[in-house]
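Notes taken during the Thursday session

The instructor put the following on the board and asked us to keep it in front of us for the whole hour. The protein is endopeptidase La. We were told not to look anything up and to reason only from what is written here. First, the residues (348 in total):
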Amino acid sequence: MKKKISIYAVFLVVICFLMLYRLDAYIMKPGSAYDVSKFVTVSDGDTDEAGTMSLMTVAMQQATPFTYLWAKTQKYQKLMDINQVRNPLEDDEEYNIRQLKLMSDSQFNAKYVAFQRAGLEVTIHFEGVFVLNVLDGGASDGLLKAGDEIIQVDGQKISNQQMLVELLKEKQLGDEVTIQFVRDKKEQQETVTLKEIPQSEEKRAGLGITYAESKSIETNPNVTMKTEDIGGPSAGLMFTLEILNQLLDENLTKGYAIAGTGEMLIDGSVGRIGGIDYKVIAADRDGMEIFFAPDDEISAQMKAKYPELESNYTTAVKTAKDIGTKMKIVPVKTVDDAIAYLKQLQPK
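Then, after some discussion, the predicted structure tokens were revealed:
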């Protein structure tokens, strides 16, 4: 009897290990389509329309031994090493903060481009320098953290990202700088002793952080965006089109279920994203009729380094053919390509 109990106990431990132990790998698979009007509201905007604009997501989960083995048998599940998902220099918290920052920048660009295309003015405010991650062993380790916004250095207000570079350029190893920053909406101050930047080929003094500009945009009419649960930049194109659709009197959707993906860059161009094949599958499954895909160009240098690399649009077309969807795949290099396509589209 005791032997049977021991066998059951070992069996239970093995099952728990296979189901629960987290590996240093992630599984990517098709996500879902989400109506962008549920996330974006333009004050007094036109929302009474038959069609929809939808952003696409992929589902990402950390693998367990069981899900890892299962994913190997599935055509539309992709195994990814943890370093393909997360920068080796960042921890989980810093990864999440970077994703939210990418989403924040995506919203900024979407508002800017949409209002520009609608012929409306905006006001841009520089907020500070946003800390993306703090390098282990660097000068700011234990003092600053991801998500902090640096607003002053040695009493001088930081008015752009380059100013921070210039202020630190003349500093030497061992010099102290006073950093004023905002954390959790409260201003704080730390004195940082400059050290050599870890893992840098240049032997120079620095704060030991990676960072990006933090800007806000003021629009009239006001645009409210609620995207707390969405990270990354890939919804930028659809945010832009939805804002524009609410700003204009005409209905850009023409009654169709329209989906798409792509980073919205400040000049209106549409940037490459990851997982487009899974987004095409999810869009088809969720009943989308039109899908905008970034038509990015693969340079000769990139092709030489990654022979299998192809444009998002090429991958989207191949996937659409593979699953036999009737959904129309539309290539877009810029937001203007998407707008032009919608304007010539016959109402449903």
